């Protein structure tokens, strides 16, 4: 595809970095536009999104470096070139959530209501940002002969060239956009705070777990050739999401019974 969108001498605009940044921008604008209608301070949501963006980038890059530590031991300066590709979503999610909890507690903002506001925006941002992976050639799929297979030809692509591959980057984008649509539908029907956020956790974990079987890139395995790092983390995210949904639902039901 086109890993480098524009190039003027030494100045380069990487398509991956541009689309990932666009994904963050779309997510932030969408969240802030809905804040007031959800009874939240738009300015505080903007500030929260900024901290989440920085922490998510750091967390995603950190987990990628951990998974690919052998490569980075021989080329340590490559750690800082994240705009060329190399972010593990779950690393960003974990650190982003941790920073969010600190921010929400410090500013005494309602945790689960804020999380419900952000969840659809996260999915929307992913839907946009994953196209950065497509153009860079990272997160590529296994060899296949399906009619919708893609073949990379650009010498600077991170994917193997001249081979028909599953367009797993597109799968991941469509998965995120489906989740976004569902969460927006659910937002008008939710019965307790936290329902949207933890529903996102369930849907993303299942979708990502499935798509991982179509991946062909070297992304590290928690259980060699059985479970990738993302699948392994996803199992815990799924279990935690189901547990929290039941817990919050039961708590809300008990409150209704008392009142």
What does this structure look like?
There is one protein chain. A hairpin with a 2-residue loop joins strand 1 (about 5-10) and strand 2 (about 10-15). The chain has helices spanning about 15-35, 40-65, 70-75, 90-105, 110-135, 170-185, 195-210, 230-259, and strands spanning about 5-10, 10-15, 150, 165, 220-225, 225-230. Helix 5 packs parallel to helix 7. With about 260 residues, it is mostly helical. Strands 1-2 form a two-stranded antiparallel sheet. Strands 3-4 form a two-stranded antiparallel sheet. It has a two-stranded antiparallel ribbon with strand order 5-6. The longest helix is centred in the last third of the chain and has 30 residues, at about 230-259. It contains 8 helices and 6 strands, in the order ββαααααββααββα. The radius of gyration is 19 Å and the shape is globular. Helix content is about 65%, strand content about 5%.
Strand residue percentage: 5-15%
Q: Class by helix and strand content?
A: mainly alpha
Question: What is the H/E order?
Answer: EEHHHHHEEHHEEH
User: On the 0-100 scale, what is the average pLDDT?
Assistant: 89
Largest sheet: 2 strands, antiparallel
For the largest beta sheet, what order do the strands appear in spatially? 1-2
Query: What gap, in angstroms, lies between the N and C termini?
Result: 59 Å
User: So what's the overall shape?
Assistant: globular
How many E-type strands?
A: 6
Q: Helical element count? A: 8
């Amino acid at each position: 595809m086109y890993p480098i969108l524009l190039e003027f001498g030494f100045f380069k605009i990487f398509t991956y970095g541009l689309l990932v940044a666009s994904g963050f921008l779309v997510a932030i604008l969408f969240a802030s536009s809905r804040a007031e209608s959800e009874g939240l301070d738009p300015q505080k949501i903007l500030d929260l999104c900024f901290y989440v963006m920085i922490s998510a980038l750091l967390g995603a890059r950190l987990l990628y470096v951990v998974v690919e530590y052998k490569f980075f031991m021989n080329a340590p300066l490559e750690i800082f070139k994240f705009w060329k590709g190399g972010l593990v979503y779950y690393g960003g999610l974990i650190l982003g959530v941790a920073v969010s909890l600190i921010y929400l507690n410090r500013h005494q903002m309602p945790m689960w209501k804020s999380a419900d506001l952000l969840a659809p925006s996260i999915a929307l941002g992913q839907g946009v940002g994953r196209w950065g992976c497509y153009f860079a050639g990272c997160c590529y799929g296994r060899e296949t002969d399906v009619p919708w297979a893609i073949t990379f030809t650009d010498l600077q692509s991170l994917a193997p060239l001249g081979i028909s591959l599953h367009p797993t980057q597109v799968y991941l984008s469509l998965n995120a956009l489906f989740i976004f649509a569902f969460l927006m539908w659910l937002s008008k029907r939710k019965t307790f705070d936290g329902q949207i956020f933890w529903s996102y956790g369930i849907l993303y974990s299942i979708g990502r777990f499935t798509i991982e079987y179509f991946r062909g890139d070297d992304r590290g395995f928690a259980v060699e050739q059985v479970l990738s790092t993302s699948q392994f983390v996803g199992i815990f995210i799924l279990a935690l999401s189901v547990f929290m949904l039941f817990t919050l639902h039961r708590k809300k039901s008990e409150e209704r019974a008392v009142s």
